[in-house]
Amino acid sequence: MPKTVFPTLSRRAFLAGTAAGASMITLHPFSARAAEGQVHLRIMETTDLHVHVFPYDYYSDRPVDTVGLSRTASIIGDIRAEATNSMLVDNGDFLQGNPMGDYIAYERGMKEGDMHPVITAMNTVGFDAGTIGNHEFNYGLDFLMKSAAGAEFPIVLANLATEKGAAPRDDTTLFKPYVILDRTVTDGAGASHDIKVGIIGFTPPQVMNWDSKHLQGNVEARDIVETARAYIPEMKEAGADIIIALSHSGIGAAKETDGMENASVPLASVDAVDAVMTGHSHLVFPSPTYADYAAVDVDKGTIHGKPAAMGGFWGSHLGVIDLMLEREAGEWRVVSTASEARPISKRNEDRSVTALVEDDPAVLDSVRQQHEETLAYVRRAVGKTSAPLHSYFALVADDPSVQIVSIAQKWYIEQMMEGTEYEGLPILSAAAPFKAGGRGGPEYYTDVPAGDVAIKNVADLYLYPNTARAVKVNGQQLKDWLERSAGMFNQVEVGKADQVLLNTEFPSYNFDVIDGVTYQIDLSQPSKYGPKGEPLNPDANRIVDLAYDGQPVTPDMEFIIATNNYRASGGGSFPGAMGDTIIFEAPDTNRDVIVRYIVEQGTINPSADANWSFAPLENTSVLFETGPKARDYMSDVKGVTIEDAGDGADGFAQFRIML
Question: In this protein, which residues make up the domain named Calcineurin-like phosphoesterase (predicted)?
């Protein structure tokens, strides 16, 4: 590979430009203070781009300021200019994750010689190297290899082999395990030096489970840290002066265990690794998120004393590691480091977003045609629904908009459990309505008529970019999960008419309906839990006649519940979902799961199956409010009889249920 000379900015030129008012850029202290024989090398990272080139949410079909490589790219020039020497790497998960990726994979396809738009954009930005994330395999190996072929930068991956040898160094790897880049750097005195930068890449070995249909029989994965220990000495033997690990793996436990998904902490402890670029978790490092992690120093931005960075996701941040290198006895060594993550936007106290950067026009222009084609794709039908998808009655009866989310989640987790120790356990699915009026107003409801379903309709069904999770619970936890959900309702007095049904302090996204079991809710009982999950009445039993497959659920029965990362990790304080029952962390968002399900089914049948209802209470009625358009669907609601009770307040309509 030809030797590359880094773009440089001398201190004299920088200071002269600043004096002339030509620049507001501040030179990094490493560059400003570097002496003869000292070199400041800045390494910049993008990670988990997931095809987000344009600052656009294709699901909601609107521009946004929080995502996009076009935004991240616009700050790279300034960040480069702060350092005498710099390079740019990508940490994986660039090929899948939004409708542009699906459009290319499912609609346009990739032939030999075709350019994938995200690769085109990355070439425009000018990356030095990249690695492969777990999502690169979602569309199959043929699609991946044809897409990666267009990259004008080396792509490395050490722990995935097409032919596995006796040890990692004997493997035939899918991509080159590492690359050594010849670079010319400038020291503090303006002198040039040659340096060899080694880049090695890793992906979670769990890809063999997550994409088994594409990978089984074609490739084999190795443990990340085991692979690093095998190849790092070889890289040093090949002349690497410094080694940067591109770890598409999160920051997790410090204790090394075989086959770790989030292995960046033990990876950083491997001898001769000088810096670790992390990702996969869609988080930011350095940040307070990791304040209590063993071997992690948030203030210094280090893991086991090695500099590390994680640049968010979808282009939200640029990870930056600064190395002060010094030449001694013919070898380069790291004498000082700094780490940070630069955001492209900020969230204000009122939850509004302020953009901190503008777009790079060249990046936008490079994929503008594919962006327009993607817009047409998301606005066009990708499937059909045999019944309307609406949420007008989602808080009072089994509901089609919640039903389809549950069906898709269950379909997905069933596939993920195949071949695992959990195969054969009953799989249930928990989902809650997101658009259900309330403070959003009388129009704030999902409303997709029967017929064509477009990808952008999925945003109506699932507002948040959550990722799928599975938890294992027992029968008692299952019942208490439903008791927690039943806090949505006020306690009613038997024999009394027109009592207010809904607790206005209870958010709709915490009203989980669990599909796969049948049950009733006895509103004459007090709620066992308060609006925030706090225990109120420990002996209360609102959930009655809870059954699975026609048989009563007993406390010792075991179930898997498909849900999302927010709920599974303790969001909403649900029994059985406090972070300690997670058995599967999916690499896919719930939105993607729904889209895939619709595409595969062609026509979906989201009709509610009325697996839950209110227990009968003699001579008792309740009132609730919902959107006026609910009147169009009154007769379709199963499991409960609903009467129109006239107009409600603030544009809402009022309805009555005879219990």
Answer: 41-282
